[in-house]
Design brief:
mainly alpha, 3-stranded antiparallel β-sheet
Amino acid sequence: MVFSTQKLKTTVAALFAIVPLISFANAPQDTVHGGEEAYNTAKLEKHGEQHETAHEASPQDKINDHISHHLQDAHEFVFFSDEENDEHYGFALPVILVDNGLKVFSAAKFNHGESVAEADGNYYKLFHGKIYKTDAAGTLNFDEHHHPSNEMPLDFSITKNVVALLFTSALLLILFTSLARGFKKGGPNTLPTGFNRVLEPLVIYVRDEIARPNIGETKYKKFMPYLLTVFFLIWTLNLLGLTPLGINVTGNIAVTVCLALFTFVITQFSANKEYWGHIFWMPGVPYIMRIILAPIEVLGLFTKPFSLLIRLFANITAGHTVVMGLIAVIYVMKQQLTVGGSIGASMLLTLFISLIELLVAFLQAFIFTMLSSLFIGMAVQEHDHHHDHAHDDHYKEDPEIPVV
C-alpha cells in the first residue's frame, strides 16, 4: 500500500490538529479533596453512620496526594497552597462541555472540586479530575466498584496539558519559521544567527544520525517533517515538565498513545508491497512456517507502537515521581534530622536526579524518533534483488570459488 506525499502530509497535519482536543481522554486526576470527602460521606450515610469530623491525613498521605496531583492533568494551575487557611494560589482554565449544547465557563466555579458549577440550568461536579452531571446539591451516585455512575458530558476543556501542548506548538512554529526564513534569505551556505545556531545542529543531527541511516538516502526527506516534529515536541515537553509549573504532558498515557498512533499510521500507509509480502507470506521459508509466522508478524505491527508509548510514558512518569519523592524527604525527615541537614540532603539528591532527568528528556525524544524512523524504514525499504542475482551469477561463472 503506497500513500502519496500530499495525502500523507494532510493526514499527519489532521492528526496533530486534534491533539489538543483529547483532554477528555486523559487519565483521571485527584485534584479534588472535597470530592473524596463527598464519596466518604455518601458511603458512611449508606451504612447509617455519621461522623462529625474527618480523619486528618498523615504527612505521607499528603505527600502521595501531592505527587499524584503533579503527575496528572488538571483544570487549573495551582502554584502553591496555604493549608492552614485552605487557600490555593493560581488561575483556573476554561471548561468546555458538550451537553445539549455548548457549555463554556471557568473552572473556578468548581472551587477546586468543593463546589457545584452551574451552567444554563445544568449542574456539574468535579470528582477525581472528571466532570459529572449532578443536581444543585452535588449528589454523586456510586456503583459497587465505588465509581460515580452519574452521566458525564463530553469534555473538551482546556486543561494544563492542553495549554502546554498549545504553547509548545506555537513556540516550535515560531522558532522553525525563523530558521526557515533565515535559510531562504541567506541561502544554504549562510551561517545561522541567534537561536538558530542551536536549532541547526539539532536538525542536522536528526537528519544525518536518525533519518538517513534508518530510512535510506532516497526516501528520508519525505519523513523529515514528521521526525523533526516529534523529536522537538517530545524534547520541549520533557523540559517543560522539569519546571515548577506541574506540567507532565509526556507522562500522560493518552498523549503517548496519540504520538505512537501517528507513527503507526504513517508506517502502515507508507509501506510498500515487499513490506506487506514479508508480513503475510514471508519469502524464503517453507509454506507451513509462513502460515505460522503470519499471525506473529501481524501482532508485531501493534507491539511496535505499543513499545513506543509505554517506554516514553513509563520513563517520564518514573523520573517525575523520583524527583518529587526526593523533595518530599524534607518534610518526611524533618523530625529525625535538623532542618538544615534534611534540606541539604534532599536538595543534593534532587539536583543529581534533575541533572539525570535533563539527559532523560533528550534521550527519550531521541529514542522515540529513532524507533519511529526505524519502523518507517522497515516499511519503505526496497531489497536490491538485482544485486542478489548478480552475486549468485558471479559464483556460477567461477565454480572454483567455494559456496558457503
